[in-house]
Give the backbone structure.
Amino acid sequence: MPRINKTRYALLGFLSMESSTGYDIKKHMEQSTNHFWREGDSSIYPILRQLLEEGLVHCETETTIRGKTKKVYTITKNGQTELENWLVKEPEPFQSRDELLLKVFFCCNVDADITRQHVEKLRSQL
């Protein structure tokens, strides 16, 4: 089974709060979820297109005051159901790239005191 990009749920979540453009979603993310879920244009726009193709969002083109067009996305009933079904599932274990753990893994290559210092520094920061 193909792995599902969880960013789709972040986008559906933002659209469940209000209809938005991709740019608006990115700005909302920067102000709220950025410290634990960060996405850039290269992820947001392709996933919005995918959600549109799947019928999970609806898109209307609006003209701005300056005469430019923008795409405003709205979550559909199917999109809301998809979001709710995901929210009730158990989350997958947190996965992250962690340089400290990588250094601990290879610590046999240096004096144990160096690794101990790295761990203690993180401990004091936490």
